[in-house]
Amino acid sequence: MRDLSRPLKRKKIYFFVLTVFLAGMFLISIFAGSGSASLPVLGADAFFPLMVDNSSFGRSTPSPTPTATQTATPTATSPPPCKTVSIADFNFSPASVTIKAGGCVKWTNNGSFTHTTTSDTGIWNSGSLTSGQSFTFTFNSKGTYPYFCAIHPSMTGTVIVN
Ligand SMILES: [Cu+2]
Questions:
Q1: 152 CA to centre of ligand 1 in angstroms
Q2: Which of 79, 100, 135, 143 ranks highest by number of CB atoms within 10 Å?
Q3: What are the pLDDT digits (tens) for 129-145?
Q4: Domain 83-161, CATH
């Protein structure tokens, strides 16, 4: 009877250990699927050296925390912001702006009176800009572009594109 029962007990123990091992793996896989990446990785590292006698198995994968940490994708492709010109006190400020071809200028009326930004040669015309309104124009060709306010012609400015 002893010779028969011993191997049976051993089989039961092995089966129990295997079941616990598989249950542990199952739980880890669940944790790994449910978000926070640092916790399951830590759990797996602690888990393997404990359960497997051959600790070299656990150490053979010196996990430098694999991936899953890079979340912020920088948007490097967005164009540079427009140069801004403030319209206030019957002046364009700065009166002269220099941009590169393909760049743009954004005029904003920061005063209380209505103004326009109007190209001397009719390339652009914002129309009336009341207080707080703005107008943006993109310059694709190099050159010097004088402009003025159609309501107050003494207000002048220049956009230089090079
Ligand atoms: Cu004006």
A1: 4
A2: 135
A3: 999 999 999 999 999 99
A4: 2.60.40.420
